[in-house]
Amino acid sequence: MADQKYYDKIAEEIRGRKIIAGLWARALAESGGQEDRARAIYISLRLGQLKAESKHISQKGNYSSQAKSLSRLSQIHSLNDSRIGRKLYEVV
To answer: Alpha-carbon distance 15 to 44, whole Å?
Structure first.
């Protein structure tokens, strides 16, 4: 039932007459001009779009947190290098 939120959004868009014109044209073309079939195809296409957008946003967030982790590791590595360098200098 994870898709339910997407179907709710699509239904809301249809009720509010906020249909994406290009997507509707594609659905109509794929249906051979049959409007009932076009509606079903439109919903399916729109569902795919919403899922792709959600996945993209999720991946973008993951990349951001990974970048922060790598940045932090780089800082720690840099700090350790400077400590090692000081110790080597003290020994020599």
So the answer is: 16
- Angle at the Cα of 29 from the Cα atoms of 26 and 31, rounded to 5 degrees: 110
Cα 61–Cα 67–Cα 68 angle in degrees, nearest 5: 95
Q: Tokens 């109509």 appear where?
A: 28
Q: Tell me the per-residue pLDDT of 38-83, one tens digit each, with 9 for 90 and over.
A: 999 999 999 999 999 888 776 665 555 666 666 666 666 555 555 5
Helix pair angle (35-91, 21-30), 10° resolution = 120
- Between the CA of residue 19 and those of 49, 76, 87, what are the distances in Å? 13, 51, 67
Tokens of 85: 């360098």
Q: Model-level pTM?
A: 0.61
Closest to 46 in 3D by CA, of 7, 15, 2? 7
The rounded distance, in Å, linking the Cα atoms of 10 and 24 is 13
